[in-house]
TrEMBL record:
InterPro entries referenced in this protein's UniProt entry, alphabetically: Metal_resp_DNA-bind_regulator, Tscrpt_reg_PadR_N, WH-like_DNA-bd_sf, WH_DNA-bd_sf
Species: Devosia riboflavina
Pfam families found in the cross-reference section: PadR
Ranges for domain Transcription regulator PadR N-terminal: 17-89
Gene3D superfamilies assigned to the protein according to its UniProt record, in alphabetical order: Winged helix-like DNA-binding domain superfamily/Winged helix DNA-binding domain
Recorded superkingdom: Bacteria
Family annotation (PANTHER family): PADR-FAMILY TRANSCRIPTIONAL REGULATOR, TRANSCRIPTIONAL REGULATOR RV3488
Protein's name according to its UniProt entry: PadR family transcriptional regulator
Length: 112
């Protein structure tokens, strides 16, 4: 049985959120939609996952916020900070190493 998304993808929402915010600022629901669209519906994270993550990243100094009212609705826009860029670089390097190691195991037979 394949692993559940909650166990296999632990930590991936943070990587994706930081990467998307490197391109431009976004509000929470916009990030949910951007992840879904960019992954061709292979990755979907509920707002209940994304919003707590955004609040944690803001508290840790990885994101900054600004509030804007559009059509009478107030939205909080998030943007990445220099601290967030450093965190993204570290997470990206870790992800590349991890996926490279997995790819090595999957592509060739190994002997004990």
């Amino acid at each position: 049985m394949p692993p559940t998304p909650s166990t296999f993808l632990n930590g991936i929402p943070e990587l994706l959120v930081l990467r998307l915010l490197r391109d431009r600022e976004m509000y929470g629901y916009e990030l949910v939609q951007a992840i879904r669209e960019a992954s061709a519906d292979q990755l979907t994270f509920a707002e209940g996952v994304i919003y707590p993550l955004l609040h944690t990243l803001e508290r840790d100094g990885a994101l900054s916020t600004r509030r804007q009212t559009i059509n009478g609705r107030s939205r909080v826009y998030y943007s990445i900070t220099p601290t967030g860029n450093e965190r993204l670089d570290a997470l990206s390097a870790h992800w590349r190493a991890l996926t490279g190691a997995i790819a090595n195991i999957l592509k060739a037979p190994h002997h004990a």
